[in-house]
Amino acid sequence: MSETGAETRPLVRQLPDPTTASNVRYNPSLAELRELAADDETTTEFGSPSYVSENRSRSADRTKNTVDDEFSEHDHELVDEALGLAGDREMVCVDRLMGRHSDATFCCRLFVPVEHARIALGWANLFEPTDGRDPDLYTVQLPDYDETAIRVLPEAGVTAVLGTDYIGEAKKSFLRLFMFRLKERGGLGLHAGSKRVRVRDADDELHTVGQLFMGLSATGKSTLTSHGCWLEDPEDAAMLQDDVCGLLPDGSVPGSEGEGLFIKTIGLNEAEQPELYEAATHESAVFDNVAVDDDGTVHFDEDRYTSNSRAIVRREHLESADDEIDLERMDQVFFITRNPLMPPVAKLTTEQAAVAFMLGESIETSAGDPSRAGESIRVVGTNPFIVGPEGEEGNIFRGLIDALDAECYVINTGYLGAKSKDIGVTESVTVLTEAARGTIEWTDDERIGLTIPESVPRLDIEEYYVPDHVEDYDEAVAALRAERREYLAQFDELREEIRDAVY
Question: Domains, the chain, ranges and CATH?
Answer without folding.
Answer: 5-36+59-165 (3.40.449.10), 190-256+325-499 (3.90.228.20), 261-317 (2.170.8.10)
